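User: I'm putting together a small comparison set for a docking exercise, and I want a reference complex before I start. The sequence is below, and the ligand is uracil. Could you produce the 3D structure with the ligand included, as structure tokens?
Assistant: Of course. I'll restate your input first, then give the structure tokens for the complex.
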Amino acid sequence: MPGQSCILPYSGHDKGSEDTFWGQIPMALALVPWESGHARQISAIDSLPASPLAIGSGLASPAGGSPRAREAALDALAQQCHACRSCSLALGRQRVVLSRGNPQARLMLIGEAPGAQEDELGQPFVGRSGQLLDQLLAAAGLDSHQDAYIANAVKCRPPGNRKPTTLELAACRPWLQQQIALVQPQVLVLVGATALQAVLGLKGPISQLRGQWQSLGGRACMPIFHPAYLLRNGSIEPGRPRDLTRADLVAVREHLLASR
Ligand code: URA
């Protein structure tokens, strides 16, 4: 296992550049879909300075704005998101699934959408895919609780774990944009093809795009296989998908260490 960092925590679908797809995340004008369908401005985002970088130790922390201000802004965002009725997924959900992990982390992982266990518990990646994701992160020297902030492209469970539709992804995009704007991660890991498409607009096969650094407004992005795919392709032989994912996550950790 490379370096020090944090060790294995604990151990719950594939459910899935252009810098201009989202463009620069609008810090001063974050628009949130609201129940009425009208856009509503979140002013807390305005108060956070743009740049992160520089950490004391480990891979966590940084950013302008105090951690407390950031967490308060994320709490406000969560409250609003929990009331979201922007698409029909709101009708079937038990819980809105926003995030887990460390909002001060320099690393953010973005998956597709909650599954059954996530819907029940209100946290992303807590089912079998999540357990495997945590193990893969740990094998690369990254702790999913301390070193990463984890979210999904879509915050409510699609029925039967189907892939979210383009409309659902679009309805949810402002929430994710605001999470990124508030957390200000240095590196985004795009977990699976849907996240890659949702965030960067890239539709190519994940088997070709994984492991290739991309950029979102200057922020480094690493696409990886979705752990649900890895659960179905369990070989740990060198060069197989699991091993490739471990290598991709090692590259992510090295990037974070090099840019401290
Ligand atoms: N798959 C995802 O993409 N996200 C989750 O939270 C769980 C499974």
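Residues 31-258 form a domain with the Uracil-DNA Glycosylase, subunit E fold (CATH 3.40.470.10). The radius of gyration is 17 Å.
User: Thanks, that's exactly what I needed.
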